[in-house]
Design goal:
165 residues, four-stranded antiparallel sheet, flat
Length: 165
């Protein structure tokens, strides 16, 4: 093969490379491309009717589930008095499970946390829900940290680390 043919072939390959590597799809998705910004998690809804020292929890399974465990915990001083794992088992799509939770609330505002884990469509998934209990104290209402504006114009709360001195 002569040198002119090799030079012409390499020139054609160099020109074709950017075209071959270019995709016709959009490289940056727009908000119109994806309207669901919900994190992937267990397809279950949890509703709670929270009182001073008890709550009525309702779970609705949007898909069939096996190996389900519902775990209860408290944050900011809330102490769960009921069984920490009140629900286990398998559920069909659209089934509902309801149960009562007894707890001792923390000072001011505390949180009741409901964690649902299980196998949905062959994937082990979980979702965490939290529900406010009580009214925040003056100390809890104090704003900690500073608010700055991000590059996209959204406010960002900068909090001190838990071990800051």
């Amino acid at each position: 093969m002569n040198l002119k043919a090799i030079a012409a072939l390499s020139s054609l390959l160099a020109l074709a490379a950017p075209v071959a590597c270019t995709s016709q799809s959009k490289s940056n998705p727009t908000s119109a491309d994806s309207t669901d910004t919900r994190k992937a998690g267990a397809p279950v809804r949890v509703d709670a009717k929270v009182g001073e020292d008890q709550a009525r929890i309702a779970l609705r399974f949007e898909k069939a589930a096996t190996d389900v465990q519902v775990q209860l915990s408290g944050v900011d001083g809330l102490d769960v008095k009921s069984a920490p794992t009140p629900v286990t088992g398998s559920f069909t799509q659209d089934s509902v499970s309801e149960f009562d939770v007894l707890f001792a609330p923390g000072e001011g505002r505390s949180l009741l946390v409901v964690t649902v884990t299980g196998t949905f469509d062959g994937a082990h998934l979980s979702r965490v829900f939290s529900f406010d209990v009580g009214t925040p104290t003056a100390e809890q209402q104090k704003a900690t940290g500073t608010t700055v504006t991000g590059d996209d114009g959204q406010p960002i709360k900068v909090l001190p680390s838990s071990n800051a001195e």
